[in-house]
Amino acid sequence: MAREPESGEKGEVAERPERVVYPEDLALDLFDGALPSISLRQRALLFEAYFTQRLGKDLPRTSRSEPAFPAIRIDRQLFRELLEGEYPIWARMLDESPDAWTEWFVIDSAEDPASVLLSMPIEDPAVGEQSLGFLTRFSDHPQGRMLIPVCRELASACQALHRRWRARPLPFVRFDQHLEEFVNRRTRLLQLQELVARSPANGS
Questions:
Q1: How far apart are CA 141 and CA 136, in angstroms?
Q2: Which of 63, 27, 18 is nearest to 47 (CA)?
Q3: What is the spatial distance between Cα 162 and Cα 59, in angstroms, rounded to a whole number?
Q4: Is the dihedral of CA 106, 67, 8, 179 positive or negative?
């Protein structure tokens, strides 16, 4: 018999496991299509789903009652300089400190194509610390001086959201605007492993 969805505070309903958005579902594709292609709108929706699923009605809101996601907007050309310019500090992060790299979401802004959003997942209570450790090595460079306070502010906000998330009765609540076709990577990997295990080549 199928289980009824669990309920939390204020009538919130638990999200189905395959519909939960995890950090890897928002990974930045730097490998020319190695990750499945999704539109800017879809990616923005997954970003919204990530935080809404974890925080539900405890998600911070603006004075106009709109969701306030922890993110910093920067110029797209500036971000390209961080990746491909004369001093590509962001690309160096990937090469020299992979743990710091995984602390970031980079989301194309569907509302403003000339900018990108920098954010962080809230799974880790110390999120941002690896990035701060990496960036302090470049505190004498203009890029480092620009990014360190941004990283510190964002890390503090996301650490506070982590504590708020862990205090909630349900770890993941339903996101009503979800993409109909979305299935997270963890579920797809399990499905693939089960398919391989059932294949004739693996039979007894």
A1: 10
A2: 27
A3: 11
A4: negative
Structure-block tokens of residue 38: 């999704």
Q: pTM of this prediction?
A: 0.86
Contacts of 24 (CB under 8 A, 6+ apart): 185, 186
What is the chain's pLDDT, residue by residue, as a tens digit (204 residues)? 333 445 556 679 999 999 999 999 987 655 444 445 567 788 889 999 999 999 999 999 988 888 899 999 999 999 999 999 988 999 999 999 999 999 999 998 777 889 999 999 999 999 999 999 999 999 999 999 999 999 999 999 999 999 999 999 999 999 988 788 899 999 999 999 988 888 776 655
Show Cβ contacts of residue 99 under 8 Å, excluding neighbours closer than 6 positions. Answer: 130
What is the CB neighbour count within 10 angstroms for residue 138? 18
Phi then psi dihedrals of residue 3, to 5 deg: -80, 145
Alpha-carbon distance 27 to 15, whole Å? 21
Radius of gyration of the CA atoms of the chain, in A: 19
